[in-house]
Structure formats: C-alpha cells, structure tokens
Design a protein that fits this description.
It is elongated and about 100 Å long. Helices cover 70% and strands 0% of the residues. The chain has helices at residues 2-20, 24-50, 52-59.
C-alpha cells in the first residue's frame, strides 16, 4: 500500500509542476532575453555586411613585394 501511495503522490506532484508552467515574470524575462539575442544576431550580421572590403581582401592572392631585400652572404667562422 505504501508503494501505491508513494507513486500516486509523485504523480500528483509531477502533474502540478507541469500544469503550473512559467509565471508572467518568467515569461517576461524569457521574452526579454530572446529580444537581446535577436538584437545581438542582427548587430553581428549588419557588422559583417558593412565591411565587404575586409572579406574581399582576405580572399585575394597576396601581392608580391616591390623589391625583395638583398640576401646577405653567410659569414665564415
């Protein structure tokens, strides 16, 4: 009988927690956090779109130097 009563109590508690759900304050916090994340993503995207020269230059082949420095002969010891 104790087992059955224990199982029933656990089931009722689990049902009560699930049925309650988040409070209005918790919902407001979740919505605020979601807005912050959306704003952060939007800022990252707009920042990456604002500087196309940086990405274009990084894929371009490296330019050869105008004059290569003269190689020095190794010194004999």
């Amino acid at each position: 009988m104790k087992k059955v009563l224990s199982i029933a109590v656990v089931a009722l508690l689990a049902t009560a927690f699930v049925a309650c759900g988040p409070s209005a304050e918790e919902k407001a916090k979740m919505e605020e956090r979601a807005k912050q994340i959306q704003d952060s993503i939007a800022a990252s995207i707009s920042e990456s779109m604002a500087t196309p020269e940086a990405t274009a230059d990084s894929t371009a082949p490296a330019a050869a130097p105008a004059e290569a420095p003269a190689a020095e002969a190794p010194k004999a010891h």
